[in-house]
Amino acid sequence: MTPTAVQLRPEPLSPADVVAVARHGARVEISGESLEAMAASRAVIDALATDERPHYGVSTGFGALATKQIPVELRAQLQRSLIRSHAASSGAEVDREVVRGLMLNRLHTMATGRTGVRPGVARAYASLLNAGITPVVGEYGSLGCSGDLAPLSHCALAALGEGRVRDARGALVDAADALAEAGLEPVVLAEKEGLALINGTDGMLGMLLLAAADLRRLVSTADLAAAMSVEGLLGTDAVFAADLHALRPHPGQLASAANMRAVLAGSTLVEMQKNGDHAFTRVQDAYSLRCAPQVHGAVRATLDHAESVAALELASAIDNPVVTADGRVESNGNFHGAPVGYVLDFLAIAVADLASISERRTDRFLDKARSHGLNAFLADDPGVDSGHMIAQYTQAGIVSELKRLAVPASVDSIPSSAMQEDHVSMGWAAGLKLRRSIDGLERVLAIELLTGARALDMRDGGVASSKSSPVLTAVRRAVRTVADGPGTDRYLAPEIEAALGLVRSGEVLAAANAAAASPLL
Questions:
Q1: Given 56, 125, 287, 342, which residue is catalytic?
Q2: Could you say which of 60, 178, 428, 436 is the most buried, measured as most Cβ atoms within 10 Å of its Cβ?
């Protein structure tokens, strides 16, 4: 169940908390323990504010300008100038949930009491989130090292009452006007605070957490779609037997095989292939059917690893310099995004392959030579009608795009800041392309489900006379609430979008779980 409020403490956030705030608008509260921790670390910074010795982020310039000593009277201006100059993103506007996730992750780092930020600055960020004010951030501007600099700077700029934001209604307005309407005062930054607001992997981490939540749902949906394709193509469930998969006991593979067994349990069509007049005569099904648990299971394993990295990031306090537990202020390299960038890329590879095997199953339905008795392209009158021919083209186009998006971003690096920042992670770019990959996978799976439901209706005459398993009958019934059964050709794009809605909302998975003996893994 999605929480309606999330309290920030020095302890790690949960992935569910980040998704609740970023995607569902849950409120943010800051615990008294965190406020005390922030006040204590701020006292350390205040003690250095008038020190004549250089302290990075307090009395020096930034990056390649770190050798420049800043006079005491200019140190507040130093922080404002940092935010204004670094708010330099460009390109298409980043989704609201990405910006909210980024802000929450940075706020949580403040709440650990390791950044030297005053409690009032943290309260200002919480107020922006709770008021539904979302800074406008362009897709370009982060190299994934020294923090997601430009994206985080736009968020800090909004807290200063500058730049452009989306208000709670989604209108594009000046930040000063949005703050005034919400009854909020702009922040005036003190020493180190500007740097502390922009030095973290918060954007790429937020995108990882959102993508992982989506992929958990989608890999189970893929198991469901694959089982529907096995049934619709008159395949066998014998290859999903538990003892066969125990011979290669990868946990993800075991989970996907168990899901497919559960979905196919009680299928009259499957039983007919085993024991009926037309008993199963093929020695083996094609790989896209027979090997679905192995491929889907590898996706699950990759996702498990990605989630373990995300958990470590959520337990981190990333800033440079950082205020240590014993009161030292130390420079470090914890802002480097390599750990997050790598797994974002790993997931893009897994997503591309999950979509690829789904498209191959769909294509088998449409080929009269491989569909075992179905009309060519599932058309009502092949030749007059084209059926789902072009729906598969759409899948193929998406899968081709996903293969390009699977090319890793994290293997690239472009030096910046006069060679001071000479190796960067490109994790932000990896996160953005993974989001596009997730969107494509949802569409590919929606088309497989739509096609599978049509094929099964052509096999048994429709849901009312269903020979499917109880689970797949429930899924077919859900699909039929948004798309008509077989017939002459009609405008297909709205049906694809409606099926996408079932996948994206989790409704199709919920329909399956309601009919299953126990929820799918």
A1: 56
A2: 428
